[in-house]
């Protein structure tokens, strides 16, 4: 990595608590909060102190391990009962990103055959640490695979924050920009502000600037004009859940960009780890879409901007149909073409 610049990290495990970069306070304040019990973790996820599919998953994993470590004087059966209840509680914090359930299930399954409560507690912590370490390597690999699709001097548009602070490190959609810096490839990023809660304006610009990546901020409604006048070469986004046919849920506004990419005949890429795939769902219509508090729309930083009592619709995600996606970039390679077949193949290989 280039000296004097750094790639920020949002989740740190500190043996008995989580030290979390409070993403709600960025970019004006860089504040770290300590999560010391399961309720702290649930609150941090629902209030978006931590957000982004892989980061939610690994925070919940540490949260479950931390909760289990606090159980006292339980036999193995009661331990599993309590663990399953806590798993359900954490999984209920946000519904769309499948990484949350994936990480929690990975922990619960890992200790199914534990022979003692102490062994189970140790194993849970190790597994959460392992998920974080794997996610960093997976994101690096996604970055390498994504970079092969870009040319020197390309201008690339993104939405929301699918960056380092949304994962263990590097990010998914933003990973190629960090690796490009290392390799001396020049890429220019255009970040869409991402209303209602401005992950693009507050987070993507902040983290790319920490690492000296060339980034320009636009509002969401400037996308078509920017593609046309700045010569955007490609769009790259992250994902919260990808179904068996390649349909992809991501931050609200992603679908708009996919339609624009088609209209302008530029590639539309989704970058995501295998932990974001949900092959149990046949299509994107089955993905639960989180609807959030109306205040996210009617207020900006506590300031009311819409008439009191106005009716509000606030879906946090939309689903981009597979036919609008040029390629899905994973740690195992780039999927292009018949997603149903390729995804089936990918998960068949995984279970061999
Ligand atoms: O509501 P958020 O901020 O959690 O939404 C996040 C996104 O939509 C990201 O693009 C997605 O989780 C991928 S993060 C690598």
From TrEMBL:
InterPro entries noted in UniProt: IF-2B-related, IF-M1Pi, IF_2B-like_C, Initiation_fac_2B_a/b/d, M1Pi_N, NagB/RpiA_transferase-like
Associated pathway: Amino-acid biosynthesis; L-methionine biosynthesis via salvage pathway; L-methionine from S-methyl-5-thio-alpha-D-ribose 1-phosphate: step 1/6
Keyword Transcription regulation appears in the UniProt entry: no
Molecular function via GO: S-methyl-5-thioribose-1-phosphate isomerase activity
Residues at the active site: 240 (proton donor)
Binding-site residues for substrate, renumbered to this chain: 51-53, 94, 199, 250-251
Keywords of the record: Amino-acid biosynthesis, Isomerase, Methionine biosynthesis
Enzymatic class: isomerase
UniProt GO BP: L-methionine salvage from methylthioadenosine
SUPFAM superfamilies, sorted: NagB/RpiA/CoA transferase-like (SSF100950)
Origin: domain of life: Bacteria
Catalytically driven reaction(s): 5-(methylsulfanyl)-alpha-D-ribose 1-phosphate = 5-(methylsulfanyl)-D-ribulose 1-phosphate
KW Amino-acid biosynthesis (keyword) present: yes
Residues flagged as site, Transition state stabilizer: 160
EC number: 5.3.1.23
Entries under Pfam families matching the protein: IF-2B
The protein's role, per its UniProt record: Catalyzes the interconversion of methylthioribose-1-phosphate (MTR-1-P) into methylthioribulose-1-phosphate (MTRu-1-P).
NCBIfam families the record matches: eIF-2B_rel, PRK05720.1, salvage_mtnA
Family: Belongs to the EIF-2B alpha/beta/delta subunits family. MtnA subfamily.
Quaternary organization: Homodimer.
Name this protein carries in UniProt: Methylthioribose-1-phosphate isomerase
